[in-house]
C-alpha cells in the first residue's frame, strides 16, 4: 500500500472543491491569507523567509491546496509518520499514521469548505493510503477547529495543560484528536463507532 502523497491520483474533487498537491507557485496565495489577523491569531505571523520555507522540497511534500472554481481558498498539511513500536516491530510501524493541519482564507470560512476538504483528506489517508490512524491538534480555545474535528468523528484524546505557546506569547492549553481506520470505516457504513 503506498504511504505517501505522491501515489494519490491528483487532483481530487469533492462536491464543491478541488484538492491538489501544492507547488512553489502557491507560496504567494498562502502567504496572503496567512497574514490575515484571524489566521495569525492561531498560526502566528509568517516568518520573513516564508517563501523559502514553503518551497523547500520536504515542506512541499506535505502540502495540499484547496480550490473552489479554480480559485485558491486554503491549504492542508498531511504529515505521514511512524507509530511508536519496539525495535523488532519497526517495519510494521513505518508510515502508518498522519497528522493533519489546515487553514482557509478568512472570507471562505463558515461555508463548510474546511469540513468538506478535511473529510476528503481523511478518506485519502484511510482508503487510498491505507493508514491506520490520523491525528490533529489545536489550541483549546480554537473552538472552530475542534468542532470541525468532532463533526468529522475525531475523538478528543488529550487535553494538555499550557503545552503550546500561542502567538500572543501566552502558554495555552491544547487539544489532541484522533481517528482510527476502523472508526472511519464504521462511520462511512453508518454503523457508528466500533465497540471499545
TrEMBL record:
Residues 17-182 form the N-acetyltransferase domain. Keywords: Transferase. InterPro entries: Acyl_CoA_acyltransferase, GNAT_dom, N-acetyltransferase. It comes from Pedococcus dokdonensis. Signal peptide: none annotated. One of its GO terms (molecular function) is acyltransferase activity, transferring groups other than amino-acyl groups. This is Protein N-acetyltransferase, RimJ/RimL family.
